[in-house]
TrEMBL record:
GO MF: alpha-L-rhamnosidase activity
Organism for this UniProt entry: Abyssalbus ytuae
Bacterial alpha-L-rhamnosidase N-terminal domain segment(s): 166-336
Protein name: alpha-L-rhamnosidase
Catalytic activity annotation: Hydrolysis of terminal non-reducing alpha-L-rhamnose residues in alpha-L-rhamnosides
Residues annotated as domain Alpha-L-rhamnosidase concanavalin-like: 345-445
Swiss-Prot/TrEMBL keywords: Hydrolase, Signal
Residue intervals of the Alpha-L-rhamnosidase six-hairpin glycosidase domain: 450-795
Parts forming coiled coils: none
GO biological process, one term: carbohydrate metabolic process
Range of residues in the leader sequence: 1-23
Domain annotation Alpha-L-rhamnosidase C-terminal: ranges: 804-882
Record bears the keyword Glycosyltransferase: no
Entry's EC annotation: 3.2.1.40
């Protein structure tokens, strides 16, 4: 009996320990500068973030302690100890220790105290490594080829062998180039990164990358190598043979810093002792593709022991280091591998492979044949109505990769310094016996963590979400491009700003856009005008368009709201202010009625078959709305940053802007001079109308939609706000009607036509099977994918508070629209299964994962939610009597863990972290 009693006591004790450990708050997922263990940080006061977890509800952080050391064991060399700081802040804590040193690795850990004052254990140890913080720390020299280039500008190969005589403790490689590079060490590519050093305004900001190569070095001989390609630096961009925009000479800068176990160190780098030779990449351009002649391979030049006596010596160049910056965003990397769906012979007799998905990247070929045999791969997004290979919408971009075989067994071919946008490839050349097994497609995009998921009970809607995500993947290659296939692929500012909020749901784009916004400021014209594309490759005076230039205010403000990124507001503030001042200088009596504007680009209009220039919404009306909106965002930012004088100045300006709008564009009865959906949407969304005119303006908007047969007619600038405005003014059912329309123009029309990405035009493929104007008809755009923001925020209900101190999902607003009705009988006949019975969405934030999942069972709604630790949430439910509201099958009125308020037929439940399950009747 005593044995049994002792065993029972021990079991209870163990269960208690287990319960205590699972209930205890834990620190997980440590981030420095929003990345896991980053290498190459140039912020001398890096920001630290951690995510907390707990099995219990209503858990919060009340204090934290951070330690930073140069020793991973923390037994010595602790350089900064924050000591206990009473704060709930767990995102973006600024390092405040001693000055940090170039290329030094630092380790950090954190522990926290919960709302009851109970301490967590120390977190696992994380790290970051600094970049090169001073120009004097660059010991390497810029080098370029010592031979004369061919007209085709064959890609050069650079190499150098070094001898390591001691045991290596750590080794860091820093690399950048004029042009694109791939770097190798002892025959191996250093990292899964492509199109490095990325695309920036090179003459002002040239990124370098930092790699830990400790495990790639060996005692004895080591070979360092690099390939260079023209890329964005000197390749053709935009139109009219627009090349050599940043320079006409490729160059390499590479530095290897080695620390030995005996305490000594050594710095090796590019200098006059390096060699360079022409490679087997005989041609490479972003738009046109790449030609590789395997007969010209120079053996194992990437490996040690190769005889390079015949290679010419390089030349050193005094390019300097003043424009070099560390890489902040994630690199372009390989992701999905897609196998062919089928191989077909077209009516024209072409051999074509269908990959089943419009994607961006390239095709890897494994082939064998005779020396001199060629394999030619053309790329296209579509087949025409007859089933033939269609490339007319590529304009002058060739998108052609050519591989010439060496005849040496099975040969591996893939490009280096180009990419293609395609679903189909056409195979030509004289290589025999090819099949689907010889090819696979590799998808490339910036390595941003996926953060959001969105699924519903409707298959077409799920495909739309898929298309939005793949449109983002295909166009987020270091910069947010407008299209990935034709002779453009530029960072159009208007496209990026309208899609930003959707992008931030799908992926963590904080660092991606932080980097790009620095180039927005760098390329901003002296008069404050913003170029149409960033980096600016279109030249002077190509800027200043309303809705495009406003990228300078809209994205920084939304980065603050969605990520809590106050730093970006401070960094971009002068750029924001200069843009608003530019609009003011272009105005007459506070009315911005000058300049060239794109207007509501590519809106729907039956007789518009060109490029959207016939926009029926007055372009100056649009400009005035964005003038006001950017001014408001500048005021908001000034308030956050404590710039009180600017708040006063620009508040007065905003009042004048709105008064000028009313005088010029609104009749005494409240009708806008442009009686269009976009006009009313912008006026309502940007608060251009007095309160007494807003409801009738919203009603006019709905009447316009009904006149068009319950269809939208908006373009790039009206579409992002259309459904949000309808929902805000009580017309959510109409917004849902627009979403679920399957006839052109609508979001689901391309889905019914087999689209796997978002199209540039509402009818890129017309109902009769013809294509739209090939001069501008990309089948992989993302602008109209901006509807994703509304889907997450209204169907799934996930929002962040916009109050200071609550942004970045510190406080979460959950407000799904559970009831979805189609209003029009005509639309009901068109759309089957139009009412959603289930919506599930997740969003991974810097506090943890939000889960919002509702489904309808009979007359009951079941709503499952998950709120991350250290956050709170307000949940809005369409319940007027809390007697009928349950949580976990218990009446909410019987518990004291919620704060409940019922008003206007809606119940607000305020709660803390944890998992909850609400239920109520429709």
């Amino acid at each position: 009996m005593k044995k049994y009693y002792r065993a029972l006591v021990l079991m209870i004790m163990l269960l208690g320990v287990h319960f205590s450990s699972t209930a205890q708050i834990k620190t997980e997922h440590l981030y420095c500068e929003n990345k896991t263990n980053p290498i190459g940080v140039d912020n001398v006061n890096p920001e630290l973030t951690w995510i907390l977890s707990s099995q219990k509800q209503n858990k919060k952080q009340s204090a934290y302690q951070i330690q930073v050391s140069e020793n991973s064991s923390f037994t010595s060399s602790i350089i900064w100890n924050s000591n206990k700081v009473n704060s709930e802040q767990s995102v973006g804590i600024t390092y405040q220790g001693p000055d940090l040193k170039s290329l030094t690795k630092y380790f950090w850990r954190v522990k926290v105290w919960d709302e009851k004052g109970k301490s967590s254990p120390w977190s696992t140890v994380a790290s970051w490594q600094m970049g090169i913080l001073n120009s004097a720390d660059w010991k390497a020299q810029w080098i370029t080829m010592g031979y004369k280039e061919d007209p085709e500008r064959q890609s050069p190969a650079f190499r150098k062998e070094v001898f390591i005589r001691k045991k290596v403790q750590s080794a860091t490689l820093c690399v950048t180039s004029h042009g694109l590079y791939q770097a190798f060490l002892n025959g191996k590519k250093i990292v899964n990164a492509y199109l490095t050093p990325g695309w920036t305004s090179y003459n002002k900001r040239l990124q370098y990358q930092v790699y830990d190569v400790t495990n790639m070095l060996a005692e004895g001989k080591n070979a360092i190598g690099a390939l260079l390609g023209s890329g964005w630096y000197r390749g053709t961009l935009a139109w009219s043979d627009n090349k050599n925009l940043y320079g006409n000479e490729l160059a390499l800068l590479l530095q290897l810093n080695i620390n030995y176990t005996d305490g000594t160190s050594e710095v090796l780098g590019t200098d006059s002792t390096w060699k360079a030779q022409k490679s087997s990449i005989v041609y490479s351009e972003i738009y046109n593709g790449e030609t590789i002649d395997a007969r010209k391979k120079t053996g194992k030049w990437k490996s040690a022991g190769y005889n390079d006596n015949q290679w010419p010596s390089v030349l050193t160049k005094p390019y300097g280091f003043g424009n070099l910056v560390a890489t902040y965003n994630q690199p372009v990397t390989k992701h999905e591998e897609i196998q062919p769906v089928k191989i077909i012979t077209t009516p024209d007799g072409d051999t074509v492979i269908d990959f089943g998905q419009n994607l961006v990247g390239w095709v890897v070929a494994e082939v064998s044949g005779n020396k001199g045999d060629s394999l030619i791969i053309d790329h296209a997004e579509m087949l025409d109505k007859n089933g033939n290979f269609y490339t007319e919408n590529l304009r002058v971009a060739k998108q052609k990769n050519i591989y010439i075989l060496s005849g040496d067994g099975v040969e591996h071919f893939e490009p280096h310094f180009t990419w293609q946008g395609f679903q189909y490839i056409r195979i030509k050349g004289n290589v025999k016996n090819l099949s689907e097994d010889n090819f696979k497609a590799v998808v490339l995009y910036s390595d941003m963590p996926e953060t959001g998921s969105f699924t519903t009970s409707n298959k077409l809607l799920n495909q739309l979400q898929h298309n939005i995500q793949w449109g983002q993947k295909g166009n987020f290659l270091d910069v947010p491009t407008d299209c990935p296939q034709r002779d453009e692929r530029l960072g159009w500012t208007g496209d990026a700003q309208v899609f930003f909020k959707t992008a931030a749901f799908n992926m963590d784009v904080n660092n991606f856009f932080s980097k790009w916004m620095k180039d927005v400021a760098a390329d901003q014209f002296e008069n404050g005008s913003i170029p149409h594309v960033i980096p600016n490759v279109l030249g002077a005076n190509q800027g200043g368009s309303a809705g495009w230039g406003d990228v300078s205010t809209i994205i920084p403000w939304n980065m603050y709201l969605l990520y809590g990124n106050k730093k970006v507001l401070a960094r971009q503030y002068n750029s924001m202010k200069s843009w608003v001042d530019y609009m003011k200088t272009q105005s007459t009596g506070y009315l911005w009625n000058s300049g060239n504007h794109f207007g509501d680009w590519l809106f729907y209009r039956p007789d518009d078959d060109t490029d959207g220039r016939s926009a029926i919404t007055d372009k100056n009306l649009i400009a005035q709305c964005f003038f006001a909106h950017s001014t408001q965002l500048l005021i908001n930012s000034a308030e956050i940053l404590g710039k009180d004088e600017d708040v006063t100045t620009y508040t007065r300006l905003l009042q004048e802007i709105k008064a000028a709008f009313l005088k010029e564009y609104v009749t005494p009865n409240g009708r806008l001079v442009s009686d269009t959906q976009t006009a009313y949407v912008l006026a309502l969304n940007f608060d251009m109308l007095p309160k007494n005119l807003r409801e009738q303006a919203a009603n006019r908007l709905t009447e316009n939609i009904k006149r068009y047969g319950y269809h939208l007619t908006t373009g790039f600038l009206g579409t992002p706000y259309l459904c949000s405005v309808l929902s805000e003014f009580g017309y959510h059912d109409l917004a849902y009607t627009l979403l679920m329309q399957q006839n052109y123009p609508s979001w689901l029309y391309p889905v019914t036509k087999g689209a796997t990405t978002i199209w540039e035009r509402w009818d890129g493929l017309k109902p009769n099977g013809d294509f739209q104007n090939p001069g501008m008809n990309s089948f992989n755009h993302y602008a109209y994918g901006a509807i994703g923001d509304w889907m997450y925020r209204n169907l799934a209900g996930i929002n962040t508070s916009e109050e200071p101190g609550e942004v970045g999902y510190k406080k979460i607003i959950l407000r799904p629209h559970f009831k979805n009705h189609i209003l029009s009988e005509e639309v009901k006949r068109q759309n089957k299964n139009d009412t959603l019975s289930e919506v599930k969405a997740t969003l991974r934030t810097y506090y943890g994962t939000i889960n919002s999942h509702w489904k309808i069972k009979g007359e009951k709604i079941i709503y499952h939610i998950e709120i991350p630790v250290n956050t709170t949430a307000d949940v809005y439910l369409p319940v007027s009597d809390i007697n009928f509201l349950k949580e976990n099958n218990k009446p909410v009125k019987s518990t004291n863990k919620f704060t409940i308020k019922t008003e206007n037929g809606e119940t607000k439940v305020s709660l803390g972290s944890g998992k909850y399950s609400f239920s109520f009747n429709l």
